[in-house]
Amino acid sequence: MSAQGGVAGAIAGTFIRSKLTPLIVASSLLLGAFALLNLPREEEPQINVPMFDVFVPFPGASPAEVEERIINVGERRLWEIPGVEYIYSTAEPGGALFIVRFQVGTNPEEAANRIYTKTSANLDMLAPGAPMPLIKPRSIDDVPILSLTFWGQGLDGHALRRAAAAVRQEISAVENVSETELIGGHRR
Questions:
Q1: CA pair distance 153, 111, nearest whole angstrom
Q2: Which residues pair with 92 in a beta bridge?
Q3: DSSP conformational letter for 93
Q4: DSSP characters for 45-61?
Q5: Considering only CA atoms, which of 166, 129, 164, 130 is closest in space to residue 147?
Q6: What are the two backbone dihedrals, phi and then psi, of residue 6, each rounded to the nearest 5 degrees?
Q7: Which stretches does DSSP call E strand in the chain?
Q8: Phi, psi of 48, deg, nearest 5
Q9: Pairwise CA distance, residues 119 & 96, whole Å
């Protein structure tokens, strides 16, 4: 063993002096090239991540009341669905929104069946005065790619919305833009 390099230095020295080292390197490169060429690839792989928005209207209720009577009950019931990985809930005046995401790879039709079945089976748990929930499926393609926020000192919500509408019209004219949505501001 070399006093300067220790065990690692001795091993490195052995490989440097060995006539087998180029053969090992060449075979490793060939094996890597073979693996790369035989690896199945897709240009646009499809990843299934079923997501659903569950809207539960509760007209006239405050956010605190929505949380107590809709969210607390709804979250417990939605967590009972097999394959649910994530639930995000929001209480707003007049209703609740649940975003339910299933595990990656879950069959979207099976996930839809599970969430519709669970929601229908628990309609009796809704607070009195709450209409039927609305369930909207979402996909991974619905995630926004670009979000813009408009603000300005001295401008009201109507002026900002008009400016955003003009920008939206320009963006919609760009080739391959799928969907644009205008949220917020004050309508006329």
A1: 46
A2: 95
A3: T
A4: ------EEEEEEE-TT-
A5: 164
A6: 70, -155
A7: 51-57, 84-92, 95-102, 134-138
A8: -90, 115
A9: 14
* Per-residue burial over 15-53, b = 16 or more CB atoms within 10 Å of its CB, e = otherwise: eeeeeeeeeeeeeeeeeeeeeeeeeeeeeeeeeebbbbe
Question: Token pair for residue 117?
Answer: 């079945």
pLDDT at 116 > cutoff 70: yes
Mind listing the pLDDT tens digit for each residue in 12-31? 888 888 888 899 999 999 99
pTM, to two decimals: 0.58
Q: Label residue 2 by pLDDT band (50, 70, 90).
A: very low
Q: What is the pLDDT of residues 49-108, one digit of tens each?
A: 889 999 999 988 898 998 998 999 899 999 999 999 999 999 988 889 999 999 988 889
Two tokens, residue 120? 């229908």
Nearest to 152 by CA among 114, 183, 185: 185
pLDDT tops 90 at residue 123: no
CA distances from 26 to 20, 21, 34, 61 (A): 10, 9, 12, 72
DSSP string, 59-79: TT--HHHHIIIIIHHHHHHHH
Provide the edge-to-edge strand list for the sheet that holds 51-57. Answer: 84-92, 95-102, 51-57, 134-138
Output the CA torsion sign for 118, 123, 126, 129.
positive
